[in-house]
Amino acid sequence: MRKIFLLALLLPMLAMAQTKNVVNSYRIFAKPDKNTMLEKAIAAHAQKYHKGKWAWRVMEIQSGPDAGGYQINEGPLMWDDFDKRGNLGAEHTADWDKNIAPLLTDRSSTKYVTYQADLSTVQLTEYSDKIVITHMLAKPGMTAAVRALVVKLKKVWEAGAENVAVYNSASSGAPEMITATRLKQGLKELDDTFRKPMADRFEAVYGGGSWDAYLADYAKAVESRYSEILAYRADMSSK
Fold first, then answer.
1. Strand, coil or helix: what is 52?
2. Buried-most residue among 97, 161, 212, 239 (CB within 10 A)?
């Protein structure tokens, strides 16, 4: 009886506990002819200042509008971790200012995203070296409709054994859902012979004519969409 009473007291606290599902992505771009220097500087900085909780997973952006840049991921962590982070110390900041900042262009972006376990077909930290990221920006008032589109896609991903992690942008610009297709077997998964076209696979799950209906719903809900290929750079990362 006493154990039941204690459990009842703990339940509200458990319900309030935060989840480590937040990832911070920071994109930076090298000045002309500075890529090699920047890569070495990032690697050295990561190994010295970004271990443990604040370890870096660095990706090279290989296609899309940000091709040639680098994406630095921190997390997954709780919001409270970012809230209490501070600046990681004066030495850390000085190293960045001296060895990295001079090699960068003025172009950069920072985004917080939250992993959506119920929409994903792969665990948050089950990474791969190559990924395809698709950004879907919702029209005003259509965020729920975009989520419903992803709900339908999940069944198709599962049928095709696709490893897709789904994220929701969090206070980082326009409302956006992001899918990261983790290519466990590399870029060959993008070949038409590896899987049937999406339209065929979608209709195999939902029936004839369902793909056209899906595209009509997509056009109503999504403002814009673009995809990009990213490759993991182990030599620049600290995890």
1. helix
2. 239
Same domain membership, residue 65 and residue 32: yes
d(CA 37, CA 41): 6
Q: What number of other Cβ atoms are within 10 A of residue 46's Cβ?
A: 21
Alpha carbon 67 to its chain centroid, in Å, reads: 16
Please identify, among 59, 90, 114, the residue that sits at the C-terminal boundary of a domain.
Answer: 114
Strand, coil or helix: 167 = strand
Q: Return the pLDDT at 36.
A: 97
- Residue 55 dihedral angles phi and psi, to the nearest 5°: -65, 150
| Consecutive H or E run containing 70 | strand 70-77
Crossing angle of helices 143-159 and 198-206, in 10° steps, is: 90
What was the pLDDT predicted at 235? 98
Return the CATH number at 141: 3.30.70.100
What is the pLDDT at residue 18? Answer: 75
Q: Residue 83 corresponds to which tokens in the numbers above?
A: 């809230």
Element (DSSP H or E) covering residue 21: none
Mean pLDDT taken over the chain: 93
Asked if residue 4 is part of any domain, the answer here is no
Q: Which domain holds residue 79?
A: 19-114
pLDDT, block means (10 residues), the chain with 239 residues: 46 59 98 97 97 96 98 97 88 96 97 98 98 98 98 98 97 96 97 94 98 98 98 96
